[in-house]
Predict the 3D structure of the following.
Amino acid sequence: MDDEGTYQVLINDEEQYSLWPADKEVPAGWRRTGKEGTKQECVQHVDEVWTDMRPRSLRERMAADQRS
């Protein structure tokens, strides 16, 4: 990763985040979050919004188990 480049923040269906070069096509299975900037700005954004590292499917399964 180039510290000087422009990045975008991506998210997948499991609500996992990734940084991706802004000038590259978004890979299959990922979508843009709307955040774009320097590597540091994007890392800071991900640190703020991705507070639960568990994949969405695991969080949902654990919540369902607690209701049972």
